């Protein structure tokens, strides 16, 4: 069965055609137009600009993906959650294709798409019950998935998403958008214990998160301290060297130390709460997905803890290219919905920017 998937909920217009059967889903053709270079100038995604760029790109992308390919049997599209300006573009394109080509239509929840992104790697299949940590620029949720297609949110962020926190703190350091990959790159060369950032809500007896306090504490730290210069002048080098010669401890905290300590704080909270959910649910699979799942420290931390403490649970995360928003993951989710005859009429489909993953 050939399924065309369309994703436009944030700053990537992405279309994919997959061949899906009980053997799995295989990508026949896919194309993504990223808007990052445009939004970078503003330090974050500007919804009006995002909508306009999705509208410019969606038809050429669909044409490119379908070129020299078999006609799809089904259309799947992200209907929410996300930015309404982008969702509308994808939903209208899918609705039009469904009507003109007389194809069944499937409305996919974006977060459900992220969960299924792990199945885009050969041989990776979610076994149920599963627990998923979906962590991106807009979401941070721990989800219990008792069986395919049924989702119960155990906990979520009360304020900023983890990716948003990475992005905002990166901005404080004058790093370009999106900040997550920049921080994790710098963190590789830093000391994780250089700054003792708070681990918000880690002791609370629930699965919820809060990241705005962590962001504020990063802001206050930068207000009250000075990071070691990135490219110190000769004079600066002499001055940083002199106090140690005089027996005065300086040990200035570098930008790398700051990033490593900050990344460690976020990782500790995400991993602690996720492992608590694993302990409670005892799932067959733990899924880590969403843009922040590209973070090496988080992937390694969960992998290590699962294999040491919960060997009966299998840990799955997506290939790096499928951590970010993409049409292929929406297509896989669409395939599973088609197996349950979960279609939506083209007249009835609606973009829902606040569509909760509780169904
Ligand atoms: O899933 P996604 O592409 O879009 C949303 O649905 O939000 O996620 C984008 C988010 C951004 O906040 C970005 O900074 C974050 O994922 N991200 C990372 C890394 N790569 C992307 N955060 C931490 N470490 C990374 N390596
Ligand atoms: Zn996403």
Structure commentary:
There is one protein chain. Helices cover 42% and strands 18% of the residues. It has 359 residues and is an alpha/beta fold. It has a 5-stranded mixed beta sheet, with helices on both faces. A hairpin with a 6-residue loop joins strand 7 (140-145) and strand 8 (152-156). It starts with a strand and ends in a 20-residue tail after the last helix. The model has no long low-confidence stretch (mean pLDDT 94). Bound molecules: 5'-O-[(R)-(carboxyoxy)(hydroxy)phosphoryl]adenosine and zinc ion (ZN).
Blueprint (SSEs and pairs):
Elements: E1 2-7, E2 12-21, E3 24-34, H1 36-40, H2 47-66, E4 74-80, H3 84-101, E5 105-109, H4 110-116, E6 130-135, E7 140-145, E8 152-156, H5 162-172, H6 179-187, H7 212-224, H8 234-245, H9 255-281, E9 285-289, H10 296-309, E10 314-316, H11 327-339
Bound molecules: 5'-O-[(R)-(carboxyoxy)(hydroxy)phosphoryl]adenosine and zinc ion.
Going by CATH, the architecture of the largest domain would be 2-Layer Sandwich
Shape: globular
How many strands?
10
What is the number of independent domains? 2
| Percentage of β-strand residues | 15-25%
- The residue ranges in which pLDDT falls below 50 over 5 or more consecutive positions are none
Q: Name the hetero compounds present.
A: 5'-O-[(R)-(carboxyoxy)(hydroxy)phosphoryl]adenosine, zinc ion
CATH topology of the largest domain: Nucleotidyltransferase, domain 5
Q: What is the average of the pLDDT values?
A: 94
Report the CATH C-level class of the largest domain: Alpha Beta
* Rg, alpha carbons: 22 Å
Distance between the termini: 25 Å
